[in-house]
Every structure is written in C-alpha cells, then in structure tokens.
Amino acid sequence: MAVLSIDEISVYASIDNKPVDTRQRVVVLGSGWAAASFLKALPKDVKDKFEVIVVSPRNYFLYTPLLPAVATGTMEERSIVEPVRNLVTKKGDYYEAVCKAIDPVRKELVACFPKDAGLDEACFKISYDKLVIGVGSVNNTFGIQGVAEYCNFFKSIEDAKALRRRVSECFERAALPATPDEERRKLLSFVVVGGGPTGVEVAAELHDMIFDDLKDLYPSVIK
C-alpha cells in the first residue's frame, strides 16, 4: 500500500453504504490463506447481516503446498487454484484491485485496478465498517546483495513458471555440443536456499524430474 493519502489519489467512483442498507460492510483485503479461510468460515446467511466485499489483485486462491509440482510439470497450475468468485458466491462481492491507501479515521480505502493487467488504472473509494487485512507478505532478501537480481523466488504461479523455464533453458544450453564441460557443470548445478517445507519440496521435485524424466531426454548431459 502506498504512502499517499486517500485525498491524493484520483478516484472514478465511490462505493458508499446505501441509506436503505442497514447492514455493516466488511471489506476483506487479499485472497491468500488468511482471506480464503475467513471467507469459507462465514455462514451461508452472512448476507442477511453483513455486506462482504473482497478486494485483491489476484483473482484466485493458490494452494501453495503443491506449487513445486507445478514448477516441474508434475501438476498443472489450474489444479491448485480456485477462483475467488467461487469463494464469495452467495456471500458477497469481489473486486480485482490493489489497495492503495487506507484512512482508518474516516473508515475508507482506495483501491485501483492493477496496471499490469494491460488496461488503464481505475481507482475507486470504498467505505467500510470492519476491515480484514490478509494481504500476506513480500519476499524477504534479508538485505543480501544480488538476491533480487540473480535468484528465482518461489511464491507464486509466475515464480513456478519462471523456474520451470529456467531449468529447461539450462539443460538445452548444456546439451549444445559447443558448451565446455566447466560451463555445463555450472548450468546443471541447482542451489535451493532454505530448508523449510518449500525448499525441501522444490529440491525433491527437481531431483525426481532430473533423474526420472529428463535422464532419457538428455543422455549426453545426465549420465
């Protein structure tokens, strides 16, 4: 969320409480584990008492434990995602947008359609009675120089695709007849930083993909 105040952002429209609607408005920011769990826990008759609005730039929930399988092709990405609109059906509304600023005094926030969607940015203001923030976190490089520029993060579908593409590129380059042995060893050396659930799963999936799937496809580089 930006440092800009609400009044500094140009908005196209405002979503205010209607005079005839006595329900309290609950705005949920995010579509990850916290937000999805909150939405699934809401009772079926929640619309009778509350107006629920979900705001998130990602219009799907990602089941991250299976993300390593997507990176190696063991599983398709559509198998580990669930559209946010499926979660809010009969419970509320969803807007694909990024929260830019929040005013806790006036109980308002400004959200904008993400620019990276290829369309013009469209900002709107939403008033709320209760605000649930479940936007997650960003990758932490711990201040280590070169991490952001030269490493592959592993948190999203895009990260899984990038890793899969990178591994394929390394093997194709290593298979070229003009590639020196020293460079080939570098190309086929993969370092996984982190020994938590994600790091262990990524390392295991890479090992299985290389020695079970790619060994027959690249006999000259995997012996």
TrEMBL record:
Pfam family of the protein (one): Pyr_redox_2
Membrane topology note: Peripheral membrane protein
Family: Belongs to the NADH dehydrogenase family.
Top-level enzyme category: oxidoreductase
Protein name per Swiss-Prot or TrEMBL: NADH:ubiquinone reductase (non-electrogenic)
Residues annotated as domain FAD/NAD(P)-binding: 25-209
The entry's keywords: FAD, Flavoprotein, Membrane, Mitochondrion, Mitochondrion inner membrane, NAD, Oxidoreductase
Keyword match NAD: yes
Coiled-coil portions: none
Single GO molecular function: NADH dehydrogenase (ubiquinone) (non-electrogenic) activity
